[in-house]
Amino acid sequence: MESHQVVIVGAGPAGSSCAKALKEEGIDVLIIEKEILPRYKTCSGVLFGQTQVLLNNYFGGLPPKSVYCRPEIINNSNIMEWNREKGFFEFVWELPKDGIQFPTVYYNIWRNLFDLWLLEESGAEYRQGWSLKGFSLKDDNVAVEVTSKDDKTTRLSCSYLIGADGGNSKLRRLLDPAWIKESLVSSVYQTYNRFSDSGDLEEGKWAVFFEPDISETLCCVHHKDDFLTLCVGGFSGRDLKAVNEMFKKFLEDEFSVVFEQQERVEGCVMRMGPPNLGRGRIILTGEAAGFMYLNGEGISVAIDSGYRAGKAVAKAIREGFDAIDIYGSQSIDLLRHVSLCTENAHFFSVQP
Ligand SMILES: Cc1cc2nc3c(=O)[nH]c(=O)nc-3n(C[C@H](O)[C@H](O)[C@H](O)COP(=O)(O)OP(=O)(O)OC[C@H]3O[C@@H](n4cnc5c(N)ncnc54)[C@H](O)[C@@H]3O)c2cc1C
């Protein structure tokens, strides 16, 4: 049976950052990713200020130009909420953390290319098209069951299994079944639309709307290369395809946008439940652990929690301490900031 000191589930920002920290400590790590890379991920694809600081600290710099899309820069002063009474006014998408104010110039990137860059920078070995199915524990060993795209089952063995498998984490569902019942769930739907006229929606502006008649979460729109990227959301049972059409009509009527064909649709589930860092030899990080900052800003804390989880596991392997104890004690500031962001969230247009 193939064996590694650590297996990480998911090649998103949390998984790659965790792998980077482990590689730095000389730990043998394998990442398994269920999609074929570069894979799409439902995301506005904006690198906020703290994300940039963390990339500089942990990855030695920002991604290469090939990862960015037009307009490359979104100033935070150009992120605006709009309503009929007030017109455009400030929308805050990032709070200072522990008194530190982050850069206010944000970068517009393609998530598929960004995530592949992060993965390659981690230096870790990875297998794509491999999906976690289950795990079992025996003594100091975790047996991991994986299914590949061609339905072949593979068994791996490791000392630590790390769940960096995102907002609908399979590993967290296995470890923490109450999460499904207790967390608030909303679905998100994102479309990439060609247009002949973006009307009053200037390039470089990211517009946010709270229109309960359209969407139960915020709706937003911003430019990405030749597309207007529209994002809407709703609680279970909502027909988000219809919601997307309503939002388009709203932008045509209020902002004189002229849409052409819709090129791509993405969607995902967001589970908002209490954080859980894992148990014993099963560690959770990023969105799988419930790490999410203000209004769904999550790349920063995925990178940060992933890196800290990796360092904690390396220390546990080297020195024999409990990995969860180390990870927990080194994540207090992250958990505090998650709470602050939850208290200040401006995400739903109706009471959940
Ligand atoms: C609509 C939307 C817009 C957003 N916009 C932004 C933004 O502009 N800026 C920002 O900072 N944050 C944004 N976020 C949040 C951000 O996308 C997430 O917080 C971040 O991607 C979490 O990173 P992660 O590594 O924890 O998980 P993910 O990025 O979700 O990565 C998880 C990986 O695990 C893989 N995986 C899942 N299940 C399995 C399995 N069973 N086996 C193997 N692999 C598996 C997935 O394919 C994926 O590659 C947005 C979120 C949404 C929904």
Q: What is the total number of structural domains? A: 2
CATH class placement of the largest domain: Alpha Beta
Count of β-strands = 18
Distance between the termini: 47 Å
SSE order, one letter for each helix or strand: EHEEHEEEEHEEEEHHEEEEHEEEHHH
Instruction: Let me know the average pLDDT.
Output: 97
CATH topology of the largest domain: FAD/NAD(P)-binding domain
> What best-fitting shape do the alpha-carbon axes yield?
globular
Q: Name the beta content range.
A: 25-35%
- Taking all Cα atoms into account, the compactness measure Rg is 20 Å
Class by SSE composition: alpha/beta
CATH homolog superfamily of the largest domain: FAD/NAD(P)-binding domain
Feature tags:
alpha/beta; globular; seven-stranded mixed sheet; eight-stranded mixed sheet; 352 residues; D-Amino Acid Oxidase, Chain A, domain 2; 9 helices
In short:
With 352 residues, this protein is α/β, with parallel strands linked by helices.
Would you kindly provide a written description of the structure presented here, covering whatever features stand out?
The protein is built from nine helices and 18 strands. The protein is α/β, with parallel strands linked by helices. It folds into two domains: 2-74 and 108-181 and 273-343, FAD/NAD(P)-binding domain, CATH 3.50.50.60; 184-271, D-Amino Acid Oxidase, subunit A, domain 2 (D-Amino Acid Oxidase, Chain A, domain 2, 2-Layer Sandwich), CATH 3.30.9. A hairpin with a 2-residue loop joins strand 17 (278-279) and strand 18. The structure holds flavin-adenine dinucleotide. Flavin-adenine dinucleotide is lined by residues 9-15, 32-35, 39, 41-46, 48, 51, 131-132, 164-167, 170, 188, 190, 231, 268, 270, 286-288, 292, 296-300, 302.
